[in-house]
Design goal:
This protein is α/β, with parallel strands linked by helices. The chain has helices at about 10-20, 65-75, 90-95, 95-120, 125-130, 160-180, 200-210, 230-245, 260-275, 305-310, 320-335, 335-350, and strands at about 1-5, 30-35, 55-60, 80, 130-135, 185-190, 190-195, 215-220, 225-230, 250-255, 260, 290.
């Protein structure tokens, strides 16, 4: 397979690339990573792969149709996995426009270039070609306690600018399949966690703030429930959906690990108490601080993964107890990775550019 991955220097994309290129024997002959390297795209996530002859990194925008067309032709791409997206809800509330520029306009232009490339292929290559679009459970809205988890028939009810932009991109992908026959597959995942997670997200933020002696900010009462999915389990689900998913179908991918945010934070504190105790021997839980809830904060997300389990044989290998230990250990062992992000953020702020 000659594979184009967009947004591959981000959290989930870099874990997916790492998993694919470490597979033995490898089924990927060429993997091209197209990433614009906005604030959350970090080439350090994949620095150790730079010498792999199968791996090609290109800095660029999925909205640049000429560049995408060039890469598709030059590398004889026969599958695309689209991770490229602005993905932080708080940022989308502060400034929605970049989310629609990347997630909607960018996806549209990527689809345009892909359709032209696919249409020009020989019949056998057209039939084998796939475009996999990675999306989120947030497009479905919010669940009440006791409601059944979302399956793939759930109507879209996005509640934030971020989720609205992802819903729009999902609809574009579906429309390109229905209208033009483009062979697409979509996955909608629950909250991911694990190595290389950008430090503004809940789990890495709590780990790093705790270690730095900073407050651990918890929105509202901390009882917002999310279904937590270890990122390597998500990466394996994406690969199965790309290789074996039915064209035009959507597959929900969840971790079977519903937890309130406050429980997550307390679990992190308890692990750090044992693995990296505070100098004063007090618990990190004393740093928990409740802050004003963000506008329109969805109360609960939960995914029904029956379809992907039944059709593709996927199941998560990590439960939350094992996954969170691996995650905390990774951050404790990779302090330089986060320190580098902090330095780059400071440099951008000093130069007057976006943080």
């Amino acid at each position: 397979m000659h594979l184009l991955v967009t947004g591959g220097c981000g959290f989930i994309g870099s874990n997916f690339i790492r998993q694919r290129l470490s597979e033995s024997p490898s089924s990927v002959q060429r993997l091209v990573n197209l990433d614009l390297l906005t604030y959350a795209g970090n080439p350090a996530n994949l620095a150790d792969l730079a010498s792999d002859p199968r791996y090609v990194f290109v800095q660029g925008d999925i909205g640049d149709e000429a560049l995408v067309a060039k890469l598709l032709a030059e590398h004889r791409i026969d599958a695309i996995v689209n991770f490229a997206a602005e993905s932080h809800v708080d940022r989308s509330i502060d400034s929605p426009e970049p989310f629609f520029q990347t997630n909607v306009v960018g996806t549209l232009r990527l689809l345009n270039a892909t359709r032209r490339h696919w249409s020009a292929l020989d019949a056998d290559f057209r039939r084998a070609f796939r475009f996999l679009h990675v999306s989120t459970d947030e497009v479905y809205g919010s669940l009440e306690p006791g409601e059944a988890p979302w399956d793939e028939t759930q109507p879209y009810e996005p509640n934030s600018p971020y989720s609205a932009s992802k819903a729009a991109s999902d609809h574009l992908v579906r429309a390109f399949h229905h209208t033009y026959g483009l062979p697409v597959v979509t996955t909608n995942c629950s909250n991911n966690y694990g190595p290389y997670h950008f430090p503004e997200k809940l789990i890495p933020l709590m780990i790093l703030n705790a270690l730095e002696g900073k407050p651990l900010p918890v929105y509202g009462d901390g009882q917002q429930i999310r279904d937590w999915l270890y990122v390597e389990d998500h990466a394996s689900a994406i690969w199965l959906a790309l290789r074996g998913g039915r064209v035009g179908e959507t597959y929900n991918v969840g971790g079977l690990n519903e937890r309130p945010n406050l429980e997550i934070v307390r679990r992190i504190c308890a692990l750090l108490d044992g693995k990296s105790p505070r100098a004063d021997a007090r618990s990190y839980a004393e740093q928990i601080t409740f802050v004003t809830d963000r506008p329109g904060h969805d109360r609960r997300y939960a995914i029904d993964s029956t379809k992907i389990r039944r059709e593709l044989g996927w199941s998560p290998q990590e439960n939350f107890d094992t996954g969170i230990v691996k995650t905390v250990d990774w951050y404790l062992q990779h302090r330089e990775w986060t320190a580098d992000i902090t330095r780059r953020k400071y440099q951008r702020q000093r130069l007057g550019t976006a943080p």
